[in-house]
Amino acid sequence: MQIETRRFAGFEFWSVGSLEIQRNADGSLAEYSHTLPEGVRSNRYSAGPFCRFGLPGAPNAAGVYAITIGYELQYIGEAVDLAQRFGSSGYGKIHPRNCHHDG
């Protein structure tokens, strides 16, 4: 099996897979939102809806990662643990605390 690689700004990145979005039994996106407690000021993104996703092939390793749509670069970031970054404690799930005005 050959690993797909791409170069951005002179650096080589290897593919660990595609983001997998959680879906309902009928194939639609499994969306959710949060209701914040009274008195908690929300941020401008708190209304949702949100979805859960993961990156099943992500290693538990530190490094720099690139997100693409097709062959177009969208974002470059750095993670201490790539699997955690895209898991339920990272980007993969929006928690109520993320919806607070300072979240």
Summarize this, please?
The chain has one domain. The chain has 103 residues and is mostly beta strands. The chain starts with a strand and ends in an 18-residue tail after the last helix.
Give an overview of the whole structure:
The strands form four sheets. A two-stranded antiparallel sheet has the order 1-2. Strands 3-6 form a two-stranded antiparallel sheet. A two-stranded antiparallel sheet has the order 4-5. It has one domain (5-99). The protein contains one helix and eight strands, in the order ββββββββα. It is globular, with a radius of gyration of 16 Å. The chain is mainly beta.
The figure for the number of domains is 1
Structural class: mainly beta
Shape: globular
Mean pLDDT, to the nearest integer, reads 93
Distance between the termini: 42 Å
Write the H/E string, N to C: EEEEEEEEH
Helix content: under 10%
Per DSSP E runs of 2 or more residues, the count of β-strands stands at 8
How big a fraction of the residues is strand?
25-35%
Number of helices: 1
| Spatial strand sequence of the major β-sheet | 1-2
Radius of gyration: 16 Å
pLDDT under 50 segments (min length 5)? none
- Biggest sheet features: 2 strands, antiparallel
What's the arrangement of secondary structure elements?
Blueprint: E1 5-8, E2 11-14, E3 20-21, E4 31-32, E5 50-51, E6 53-54, E7 63-69, E8 72-79, H1 82-85
Antiparallel strand pairs: 1-2, 3-6, 4-5, 7-8
List keywords for this structure.
103 residues, mainly beta, two-stranded antiparallel sheet, 8 strands
